[in-house]
Design brief:
CATH topology of the largest domain in chain A: Rossmann fold
Order of helices and strands of chain A: HEHEHHEHEHEHEHEHEHHEHHEH
Structural class of chain A: alpha/beta
Mean pLDDT of chain A: 95
Oligomer: homodimer
Largest sheet of chain A: 6 strands, mixed
Number of strands of chain A: 10
Distance between the termini of chain A: 41 Å
Chain lengths: 322, 322
């Protein structure tokens, strides 16, 4: 597959106009005081399906032929991509099957089913979800919609940066959560051609630092399945398509502790009054942890808001997660 | 004191321009589906200080002479009014003293102190906070900023409806939380002269239905200190100034159960991704409970977002509050 370009992001933006929500850019005196920077939060937690994932999923399914859509689509996901494919499939008339891990957050399972998708379960520690979904696609004729390593997915996610830079054109820094790298790859395609060009940093949990390790090694490094509260950032290696884009354009990777992620969720919720899931809060975690020099104009992608209620309750009680 | 008018609300709006946040009006496909109405949420949870109370407090303190401000202001409040007076006093250079109940939510106490106010404690079940604050004002020369029963407070709060009706001019219904009645009185002054005129309903907890009882009785009825999770709606009787405005202009009072309030907080948080405190969620509770006929355009004031973390954790676990 050809690597996507900024032109693909612009095409995705046209397809998503009037379908994806143009999410608000939030500012907060409180957060500016706490971080010493001027912070602009692109709140994809308010996106349809509760996360940026809808952008890529809708764009990918809309790019299929009518016959392909009628044959259905299949996805594997611990959560937000599942919801996104389910919702996009429902809107576009494509039957959806999703492979989900048995330990997926209950709220995400319920939402995925609520959008009419059929769920197949797998064991995250022992089964290869990509292989399961690929086999299913071969057997049924359904099209696989991968979570990040696909040009249409990357192009769709890039519309997040497109909108943010339209609204705040003069960012010094942009912080983007990194799981498999679809979101940051799309954002990099946009930001690298934007003037003035912001320094784009990926942010990942210390416990799931496959991308940081890969950039240091100069090649894709696979880590064992990580344990982190940021369930959306658990992919074990960067994508084949996404990694070269990060290598070429990213300013670096910041890694944050589990406690810093929980604190970011608490601050966003209790001070800014917005619910952001742990995976979506890593950018704010990096800021609160002092990983970005103060005094800059910093864009942060809050990538999603689909927090599990019991995890959230534990965070509020300052407990270890259940 | 002369009862306030719509002209006073317009004057308050001028004073608050550039100081109070013009809060967003949120819409949600999910909420529209759940309620069968078209719902417009005026999110005062994003107001400075975390609640609409900042509007009235700032307007009231800004209306004082420089000498009065220098002598300080005093307030009594279970929470949001305290924060609002503390923040407004800080911005306007007036020293602030607040009488707070010993069982006030910890987050509200911390925020009030964070804005530089001095706190005096009282026992909500046994002491008369209004009398304590009035005595303090007499002794020190400070000006009492009452939580609701004051023309400048009512006029300030009315700017909530002014902004909402500017943005959504054709509401059929407007739902407003009722504690002492300052917010709804201000909103009624605006809505009663707006064309087309929306039907404005107050919403209060069943456990704190002093206003519903008062309207039925045709006079202000005092109830014992109520136990409700909606800590901002605990005043035991309508105000002297606010009640006649409700009698004249309100379409009625809807009352909601404690469980309906908790469910509204859950839906707003987990589905819409916004944190609204129980007092601020009663309007959505009324909608979810089916108290408003479907198919209408319904404005709802989400009055604040300063939820106590432990109460919130209990709501998320679907437990009784701690």
């Amino acid at each position: 597959m050809n690597p996507p370009t900024r032109a693909d992001v612009l095409a995705a933006a046209q397809r998503l106009a009037g379908v994806a929500r143009r999410t608000p850019v939030l500012t907060s005196r409180t957060l500016d005081q706490l971080t010493g920077s001027q912070v602009f939060l692109k709140a994809e937690s308010f996106q349809r399906g509760g996360a940026f994932k809808f952008r890529g999923a809708y764009h990918a399914i809309a790019s299929l032929t009518p016959a392909q859509r009628a044959a259905g689509v299949v996805a594997f996901s611990s959560g937000n991509h599942a919801q996104a494919v389910a919702l996009a499939g429902q809107l576009l008339g494509a039957p959806v099957t999703v492979f989900m891990p048995t330990d997926a957050p209950a709220a995400k399972v319920a939402a995925t089913q609520g959008y009419g998708a059929r769920i197949h379960w797998y064991d995250r520690q022992r089964e290869d979800r990509a292989a399961l979904a690929a086999a299913y696609a071969r057997e049924t004729g359904a099209t696989l919609i991968p979570p990040f390593d696909h040009p249409a997915i990357i192009a769709g996610q890039g519309t997040v940066a497109l909108e943010l830079l339209e609204e705040v054109p003069d960012l010094d820094v942009l912080l983007v959560p990194v799981g498999g790298g679809g979101l940051i790859a799309g954002c990099l395609l946009v930001a690298s051609e934007h003037a003035p060009r912001p320094a784009v940093f990926g942010v990942e949990p210390m416990a799931a630092d496959d991308t940081a390790r890969s950039l240091r090694a100069g090649r894709r490094v696979r880590i064992p399945p990580p344990e982190t509260i940021a369930d959306g950032l658990r992919p074990t290696e960067p994508g084949e398509l996404t990694f070269p884009i990060l290598q070429r354009f990213a300013a670096g990777i910041l890694t944050v502790s589990e406690e810093a992620i929980r604190e970011a969720v608490r601050v966003l919720l209790l001070r800014l009054k917005v619910l952001v899931e742990p995976s979506g809060a890593v950018g704010v975690a990096a800021l609160l942890a002092g990983l970005v020099p103060a005094g800059q104009r910093v864009g942060v992608v809050l990538s999603g808001g689909n927090a599990d209620p019991l995890h959230l309750a534990a965070i509020l009680r300052a407990e270890a997660p259940p």
